[in-house]
Design goal:
With about 750 residues, the chain is an alpha/beta fold. Helix content is about 65%, strand content about 10%. It has three domains: about 140-355 and about 370-465, Up-down Bundle (Na+/H+ antiporter like fold); about 470-645, Rossmann fold, CATH 3.40.50; about 645-750, Rossmann fold (3-Layer(aba) Sandwich), CATH 3.40.50. A ten-stranded mixed beta sheet has the order 3-2-1-4-5-10-9-6-7-8, with helices on both faces. Helix 8 packs antiparallel against helix 17, helix 18 packs across helix 21 (about 435-450) and helix 19 (about 405-415) packs antiparallel against helix 22. The longest helix is centred in the middle third of the chain and has 32 residues, at about 255-285. The model is unreliable at about 470-480, about 585-590 and about 595-620 (pLDDT under 50).
Length: about 750
């Protein structure tokens, strides 16, 4: 108490004395002002409120305030549109591009011109453009790092054939299309060579990042087909960027002959990057490949390499983005280094800066210019040429290198994806004056259309040319007597479920099958970190399985809809049981959570938001959250739901039989009774054995396996001291629901619970 009083007195005296001193200094300083300064002081002609309003208005329209408001608006709108597109099965990038068009003159500028002029005044677009270019430079740097040149070498021959065929055919169609479009649409002063080459390259590009994400979401990344199409897209990207660099050089130089000097310098730049700088960076990266080693000076060195590379290519006349891409390619191939570095750059570039590029593109896209049916016919012709060239070129070449028709069509569909990379090319063409506003709008529509059609095309191929999916192939083992699928979220939860599964398959592990499934939200993964993430996720599971002398199959897949994929895997995999885990966070802030002892001082923001919006209720009629309830409802095989409460060991297990419908639990008790290191308690609290002679005989039979370890109780012992001495309770879903609905007091003292639905 005395200490607090001393602190308050000291604080009061310090603030008071020095405030008085400041006032004295300011008053003395005012006497030093010259008489002329006093005469020239303006007399306030307006009220204080008007002065404040004038200052506030000036601050609101300050360039920095406008830029910050633009960034806030862009991120929010891009996230909303991206979420919507993801919910209907389209890539997020489609939503972000659509957000740009929405905020541009085509919609917001058309219907709310005053607000559009305030939010995106013409004088502010320069700042937005340069900031978006920084985001693009960082993004292209990441794309370069995500390319695995070793994979390109192993599949180089087939990939080169497919990717180059997918470039030359649409390129030729684009140049041919330019013959038809040049007179009407080419800007003044642009030669046919420059115009036709740019139309050709615009139709030839493939969006490597969007394609890679679709491959992951479709569960193809670990298959031969997935590796092939990723390699083709990577080869396509490298080739297309080299061609684009040459095209830019030709356009800026004015003729092919004068561009030769630029091309020679560009070739010398590429040679220096690959042969001189790359080995030096490799040694540095290998030395500092751990997280603590990447100190600020080391990170600064690699960023300097990035910026110098972008600067060199910009000065050479082949655009800064090519330099950023090359800087990413020559980064140390050490997997750990790339993972750490991508983590440092990715969120800032993808979440903060890249949406600015989409919106800036949307601000340039004036769909209103296409105000004539003829212009829409030309747009349709561009889309047809792009799809025909890319899809047919890729599919035919894939078939030529001995791919099946199904795989060839999938490769063609994926290679037809253009997305962000198309927008990059189009903006370059717009900046150097090759593309008119009309052609730019047509090409943006083509980029959206070809990217949107990828998902539906893959669905059609799966429908009319079906093939066993990855779940069926992984589960197509010779049938065993008892097969368990464990679907886990956290590695530690998976470890505990693996231990429990070991007891349920009795001693003869060789005649049983355990499969561990982990589904990760696809937005968490990229091409570089997927393999390392998989290894880290399954490491505790493997350690636990090794300690139990238990073999298991591991299934890992990026997923857009986790509960749907769990249901599909369980139903199509010939399993005898699905086991899922529920942690504390599912019940925090709910009535059931209080009953179970899962209380939290602060309800999670996500759960509070879901409750307010009506997505979730504080107390579900289904007892479980909606996702778990959907899994229980849809899975055809028996389901075990583990509510884990510090389940460090599984040695003392309780199996209560509340009704004749719980008879199926006796099968689990029989399996557990054979485990010599388990103490098993069978309880008949409702005198069910009296009503059913079969249940009575089966309970007696189990208790006689080993009377020292197995106890049969005919009375209700569900009290605090008794329950807290147990490690696990196995109960039927029907009995669990009744206990929750009747607010049974013993729930708050229960140990970890395995709820089984027959």
């Amino acid at each position: 108490m005395m200490k607090n009083i001393r602190n308050i007195l000291f604080y009061t005296l310090t603030i008071g004395v020095f405030s008085a001193l400041l006032y004295f200094f300011i008053r003395q300083g005012q006497f030093l002002e010259s008489p002329d300064l006093l005469k020239n002081k303006p007399v306030a002609a307006t009220s204080s409120w008007e002065q404040f309003a004038d200052t506030f208005g000036h601050n609101l329209t300050h360039p920095l305030a406008i830029l910050l408001l633009q960034i806030i608006t862009i991120i929010i709108i891009a996230r909303v549109f991206g979420w919507f597109c993801k919910s209907i099965g389209q890539p997020t990038v489609i939503g972000e591009i659509a957000a740009g068009i929405f905020l541009g003159p085509s919609l917001l500028g058309l219907y709310f011109p005053e607000f559009s002029a305030f939010l995106f005044p013409k004088q502010s677009l320069g700042n937005l453009q340069f900031l978006s270019q920084i985001g693009l430079i960082l993004f292209m740097f990441i794309i370069g790092m995500e390319l695995d040149l070793k994979v390109l070498k192993t599949k180089a021959q087939e990939a080169v054939v497919i990717s180059h065929a997918s470039i030359i055919l649409p390129f030729a169609l684009g140049v041919g299309l330019a013959l038809f479009m040049y007179e009407r649409f080419a800007p003044d002063g642009i030669s046919f060579l420059s115009f036709s080459l740019f139309i050709g390259i615009a139709l030839s590009i493939t969006a490597f990042p969007v394609l890679a994400r679709i491959v992951q979401e479709r569960g193809l990344s670990r298959t031969k087909l997935g590796m092939m199409v990723i390699t083709c897209a990577a080869t396509d990207d490298i080739t297309a960027w080299c061609i684009l660099a040459a095209v830019i050089a030709i356009v800026k130089a004015g003729s092919f002959v004068s561009s030769i000097y630029t091309i020679i310098l560009a070739a010398a730049y590429v040679f220096f990057m690959l042969r001189v700088l790359k080995p030096v960076l490799k040694r540095i990266g290998d030395h500092y490949s751990y997280r603590e080693g990447l100190t600020k000076p080391v990170v600064a060195l690699f960023f300097i390499v990035l910026l110098l590379s972008a600067f060199c290519t910009e000065v050479l006349g082949i655009h800064a983005l090519f330099g950023a891409f090359m800087a990413g390619v020559i980064m140390p191939s050490n997997q750990s280094f790339r993972n750490i570095f991508i983590e440092k750059v990715e969120d800032v570039s993808l979440v903060l800066l890249l949406p600015l590029f989409f919106v800036f593109t949307g601000l340039r896209t004036q769909i209103g210019l296409l105000n004539d049916p003829y212009l829409w016919q030309v747009t349709g012709l561009i889309i047809a040429a792009a799809v025909t060239g890319k899809f047919i070129g890729s599919a035919v070449a894939a078939r030529f290198v001995k791919q099946s028709w199904r795989d060839s069509l999938i490769i063609g569909s994926l290679m037809n994806t253009r997305g962000l990379m198309e927008l990059v090319v189009l903006n370059i063409g717009y900046d150097i004056g090759v593309l008119s506003p009309e052609i730019f709008a047509m090409m943006v529509i083509m980029a959206l259309a070809t990217t949107c059609m990828t998902g539906p095309a893959l669905d059609l191929i799966d429908r009319f040319m079906p093939q066993k999916n990855w779940e069926k192939v992984a589960a197509a083992h010779e049938s065993s007597r008892f097969s368990i699928l464990i679907a886990f979220a956290s590695p530690q939860g998976g470890r505990k479920m693996m231990r429990l599964a070991r007891y349920l398959i009795q001693k003869q592990t060789e005649s049983h099958q355990v499969t561990a499934l982990h589904l990760s939200p696809s937005s968490y993964l990229n091409q570089v970190n997927t393999e390392e993430y998989q290894q880290e996720t399954f490491r505790p599971i493997k350690e636990e399985a090794a300690s139990l002398d238990l073999s298991f199959d591991a299934l890992f897949k990026p997923s857009q809809n986790i509960e749907h994929d769990i249901i599909e895997t369980a139903n199509e995999g010939a399993y005898d049981m699905l086991m899922i885990g529920i942690g504390r966070t599912v019940f925090e802030g709910t009535f059931l959570g209080k009953i179970l002892g899962f209380t939290s001082k602060i309800i999670s923001p996500e759960r509070l938001f879901d409750t307010i919006t009506g997505k979730e209720k504080l107390f579900h009629a289904n007892v479980f959250d909606e996702r778990t309830a959907q899994i229980i409802k849809s899975v055809k095989v028996p389901v075990g739901i583990l509510i884990e409460k510090n389940l460090d060991k599984v040695e003392d297990i309780l199996v209560p039989i509340f009704s004749p419908a719980d008879r199926f639990l006796i099968q689990f008790a029989q399996k557990l009774g054979l485990q010599e290191n388990i103490r098993l308690t069978m309880m008949d609290p409702a005198s069910t054995a009296v009503l059913s002679s079969e249940i009575h005989d089966e309970l007696i039979e189990i208790s006689e396996i080993d009377p020292e370890r197995i106890t049969l109780l005919d009375e209700n012992m569900l009290e605090k001291d008794f329950l807290q001495g147990k490690d696990l309770m196995i109960i039927s879903l029907a009995s669990w629901k009744k206990a929750v609905e009747s607010h049974s007091l013993w729930l708050s003292h229960s140990p970890s619970v395995l709820i089984v639905r027959e």
